[in-house]
């Protein structure tokens, strides 16, 4: 299906009336960015795909609660982040190891666009971030890649503001030290 020129407000109105073509158009516009957001948090490509799908379903069923259609992308991203964090917290409690960290990865998509993927410094930083403690990696991903501020990270990770600042600071120090060694 080719992309239409309809603006997001028109598409969202059609989605509210159950128009499946409009839902597909919205999905096609946002699915890569939402997958990239999920994969950075859960680090499991299959689970990231599931989370993305569930998030779109949630968004389409709760579309009537969205007050400003211009904020749809941010609203959808917040749903994806919340679902990803929920999965991450559950996996940590169950001490699960993502399948992708055990099996050799054929595909490695960390949510950076193709132009940046060829940049060796970006690759080195992202690879080094993967070696950090899980909470350090998650905190840095949310802060540096996703752009959340400390208050939002506190809410997402369910930690105090002081703990959040300490976690981010220690994560940055740990990342810096590992990068110096490389």
Automatic annotation (TrEMBL):
Known InterPro entries for this protein? RNA_pol_sigma-70-like (IPR039425), RNA_pol_sigma-70_dom (IPR014284), RNA_pol_sigma70_r2 (IPR007627), RNA_pol_sigma70_r4_t2 (IPR013249), RNA_pol_sigma_r2 (IPR013325), RNA_pol_sigma_r3/r4-like (IPR013324), WH-like_DNA-bd_sf (IPR036388)
What processes in GO biological process is this protein linked to? DNA-templated transcription initiation
Q: Which residues form the RNA polymerase sigma factor 70 region 4 type domain?
A: 125-174
Instruction: Check the record and name the SUPFAM superfamilies matching this protein.
Output: Sigma2 domain of RNA polymerase sigma factors, Sigma3 and sigma4 domains of RNA polymerase sigma factors
Gene Ontology MF terms in the entry: DNA binding; sigma factor activity
Protein keywords = Sigma factor, Transcription, Transcription regulation
* Domain (RNA polymerase sigma-70 region) ranges: 26-91
**Family per record:** Belongs to the sigma-70 factor family. ECF subfamily.
Q: What is this protein called?
A: RNA polymerase sigma-70 factor, ECF subfamily
Species this chain originates from? Winogradskyella thalassocola
């Amino acid at each position: 299906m080719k992309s239409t020129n309809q603006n997001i407000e028109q598409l969202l109105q059609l989605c509210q009336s159950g128009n499946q073509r409009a839902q597909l158009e919205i999905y096609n516009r946002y699915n890569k960015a939402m997958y990239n957001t999920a994969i950075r948090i859960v680090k499991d490509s299959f689970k990231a795909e599931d989370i993305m799908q569930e998030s779109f379903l949630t968004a389409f069923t709760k579309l009537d609660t969205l007050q400003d259609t211009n904020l749809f992308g941010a609203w959808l991203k917040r749903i994806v982040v919340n679902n990803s964090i929920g999965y991450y917290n559950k996996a940590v409690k169950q001490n699960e190891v993502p399948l992708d960290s055990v099996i050799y990865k054929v595909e490695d998509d960390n949510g950076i666009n193709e132009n940046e993927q060829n940049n060796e410094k970006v690759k080195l930083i992202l690879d080094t971030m993967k070696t950090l403690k899980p909470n350090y990696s998650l905190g840095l991903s949310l802060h540096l890649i996703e752009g959340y501020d400390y208050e939002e990270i506190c809410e997402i990770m369910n930690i105090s503001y002081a703990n959040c600042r300490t976690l981010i600071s220690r994560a940055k120090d740990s990342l810096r030290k590992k990068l110096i060694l490389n």
